[in-house]
């Protein structure tokens, strides 16, 4: 298990060394959310401060996976970066280039090197690239995959209704 507070301090220092305007109002204690199923991290703005939270799934992950997730959330504390817009993407690119991170809008279990233990009731697969889309709940996508396309443009098929 990692010292998450130390990793957070390290990530903040890395960002500041690159002149990325992260907030000085980040709470220095990382919260662990053991109920988070589909997300790995969260940046909560509350009373002028930012609380960084990560999923309990990352406690057994590599230090690199933890730092990458923390960096992703720290970038949300920059002015104009509450979403994954142009500014946020620019800062992520700078961090990725300088430190070898792979910060992106959304990470996968595979990219972070952790097992996916979430339940899947529906599995859709792209006929073109083989990408998988997992869903726990029934939705328009599950009911009518023919109306949707994969990011690569390929057709989706429902492979696994459990």
Strand content: 15-25%
Write down the CATH topology of the largest domain.
Zincin-like
Computed over alpha carbons, the radius of gyration is 18 Å
Number of E-state strands: 6
Unreliable stretches covering 5 or more consecutive residues: none
The level 1 CATH classification of the largest domain is: Alpha Beta
Total discrete domains: 2
User: Based on the structure given, which CATH architecture of the largest domain is correct?
Assistant: 2-Layer Sandwich
Task: Give me the oligomer status.
Answer: single chain
Q: Spell out the helices and strands N to C.
A: HEEEHHHEEHE
Please describe what this structure looks like:
With 162 residues, the protein is of the alpha+beta class. It folds into 2 domains: 4-112, Metalloproteases ("zincins"), catalytic domain (Zincin-like); 122-161, no CATH class. Helices cover 30% and strands 19% of the residues. The strands form 2 sheets. The protein has a 3-stranded mixed β-sheet, covered by helices on one side. The longest helix has 14 residues, at 4-17. It starts with a helix and ends with a strand. The model has no long low-confidence stretch (mean pLDDT 92).
């Amino acid at each position: 298990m990692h010292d998450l507070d130390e990793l957070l301090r390290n990530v903040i220092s890395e960002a500041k060394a690159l002149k990325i305007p992260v907030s000085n109002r980040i709470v220095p204690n990382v919260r662990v959310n053991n109920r988070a199923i589909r997300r790995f991290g969260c940046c909560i703005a509350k009373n002028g401060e930012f609380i960084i939270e990560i999923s309990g799934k990352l406690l057994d992950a590599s230090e690199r996976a933890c730092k990458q997730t923390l960096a992703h959330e720290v970038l949300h504390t920059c002015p104009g970066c509450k979403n994954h817009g142009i500014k946020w993407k620019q800062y992520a690119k700078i961090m990725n280039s300088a430190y070898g991170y792979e910060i992106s809008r959304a990470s996968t279990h595979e990219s972070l090197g952790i097992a996916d233990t979430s339940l899947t009731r529906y599995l859709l697969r792209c006929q073109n690239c083989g990408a998988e889309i997992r869903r726990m709940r029934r939705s328009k996508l599950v009911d009518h995959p023919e109306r949707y396309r994969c990011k690569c443009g390929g057709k989706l098929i429902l492979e696994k209704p459990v």
